[in-house]
Amino acid sequence: MYKLLLTTATIGALATTALAQSAADTAKARRAFFSLIGYEMGTLGAMAQGKMDYDAEAASAAATDMVALTKYTMSDLFAPGTSTEDVSGETRALPAIWEDMSGFQAKGEDFTAALMELNAVAGDGLDALRPAVGKLGGTCKACHDDYRAKSF
Ligand code: HEC
């Protein structure tokens, strides 16, 4: 719960933060952040889909790393003026994020909640991991469907 609240607080600060670096650099850093999320999810997804042998330690590490990423202060990564309309070709972050900050934030909360559930069971065997990965993946897709462009 503590982590969930923390994430809510940091995302909540989004709209007021000024752009400290170029929009292109911000988009690049934001994409790097999501690359790390995607990388850890890749490990968990491969195990869930049987493409990689289940390994309690590796699964726990991937989940823990993702939890660590939720502590990252997101406000600068989502500075205004860094959407697809501002730096076309360098980001897929849709203007809808800034137009509907509370909706975007709600997707982030769903993600964090599912991640905490996954983190609690990641070391408990493949049967426990599989549904938790499926649920977490659903929260990625839900946000991407509404707030991420399909292509650059
Ligand atoms: C609250 C919304 C949200 C959630 C939840 C979310 N994402 Fe994303 N994701 C985004 C946005 C917005 C972008 C586009 C960033 C950009 O292009 O600037 C993105 C981009 C990405 C990218 C592409 C990075 C690149 O190099 O361009 C990957 C990979 C990714 N997300 C994976 C995931 C995975 C895996 C999850 C779930 C475990 C997840 N995301 C959850 C919003 C979200």
Features:
mainly alpha; binds heme C; elongated; disordered N terminus; about 150 residues; Four Helix Bundle (Hemerythrin (Met), subunit A); 6 helices; about 65% helix
In round numbers, the mean pLDDT is 91
Assign the CATH topology: Four Helix Bundle (Hemerythrin (Met), subunit A)
Largest sheet: none
Radius of gyration from the alpha-carbon trace, in angstroms: 16 Å
Distance between the terminal alpha carbons, to the nearest Å? Answer: 35 Å
Beta fraction: under 5%
List the helices and strands and how they pair.
Elements: H1 2-12, H2 23-48, H3 56-70, H4 96-99, H5 101-121, H6 126-147
The site of heme C (HEC) has 22 residues, from helix 2, helix 5 and helix 6.
Question: How would you describe the overall organization of this protein?
Answer:
- It is a single chain.
- The protein has 152 residues and is mainly alpha-helical.
- The protein has a single domain (2-12, 23-147), classed as Four Helix Bundle (Hemerythrin (Met), subunit A), CATH 1.20.120.
- Helices cover 65% and strands 0% of the residues.
- It has helices at 2-12, 23-48, 56-70, 96-99, 101-121, 126-147.
- Helix 5 (101-121) packs antiparallel against helix 6 (126-147).
- The longest helix has 26 residues, at 23-48.
- The relative contact order is 0.18.
- The model is unreliable at 1-6 (pLDDT under 50).
